[in-house]
Design brief:
With 201 residues, this protein is of the alpha+beta class. Helices cover 13% and strands 28% of the residues. The chain contains 4 helices and 8 strands, in the order ααβββββααβββ. The chain binds a DNA duplex (13 and 13 nucleotides) through strand 3, strand 4 and helix 4.
DNA sequence: GACACGATCGGCT
DNA sequence: GCCGATCGTGTCG
């Protein structure tokens, strides 16, 4: 059920970004368990990707997490307000990562409603990277957490999509990445109502 | 030490 | 569709 460490060692981050669609992301905060099906991701291709925090081999206190062995979380604060959750992949010193952009609520829906102050019937509850992080209670304390531990982890529930059920398009909010801005490295489940920008392909 | 800006969201027009 | 919120980070001095 719980994805093993070996899953995250895969050096093909474009494959993993697509393979993570359908997997179930869990958090357990003081016994409050919440989980959702991953329906939208983006791949960040290490040191050669101008949109990545690790572009050019940049190595700072913040980005150090990206250089860890695959299988840990990379959480950072964006726009001073939102926490964004990434899955660090590949091997040590190869800073590939997958940003999770949307989930479909599955377990602990009442807890998510309390955290988001809105009914689970609203898709905005977990649509978009900042929103899903808040719904799952992910904050800075989750940075560099082991994804095979018991605070945050990902399970395989046997949900898988065929290639024709997945759409690929340019990543969101990376205009600064120049020629890398238009690479089709954002993946989402076609027709899923939790996808944050379903029209942009 | 100072400053410009972001892998966004939600409210208002 | 537009705009303000809000603060850690990185870069420069």
């Amino acid at each position: 059920m719980k994805l093993p460490l070996s899953y995250y060692s895969n050096q093909d981050v474009l494959f993993l970004a697509q393979d993570l669609l359908g997997k179930v992301l869990f958090t357990n905060i003081n016994g409050e368990i919440t989980a959702g099906i991953i329906v939208e991701t983006e791949a960040y291709f290490g040191i050669q990707d101008k949109a990545s925090h690790a572009y050019g081999g940049r190595r700072t206190h913040r980005t150090e997490t990206l250089y860890a062995h695959g299988g840990v979380s990379y959480v950072y604060l964006c726009y001073g307000i939102h926490h964004l959750f990434n899955v660090v992949t590949s091997v040590k010193d190869e800073p590939h990562a997958v940003l999770v952009r949307a989930i479909e609520p599955l377990i602990g829906k009442e807890i998510m409603e309390k955290r988001r102050q809105m009914p689970v019937s609203r898709t905005a509850i977990s649509s978009g990277p900042g929103s899903l992080a808040k719904a799952l209670g992910i904050n800075q304390a989750f940075n560099k957490k082991d994804l095979i531990g018991n605070e945050i982890w990902i399970e395989d529930h046997g949900i898988a999509y065929n290639p024709d059920e997945i759409a690929a398009g340019p990543r969101i909010g990376v205009a600064y990445a120049e020629e890398d801005a238009h690479l089709p490295w954002r993946f989402f489940v076609k027709g899923n109502k939790y996808v944050s920008k379903p029209n942009k392909v």
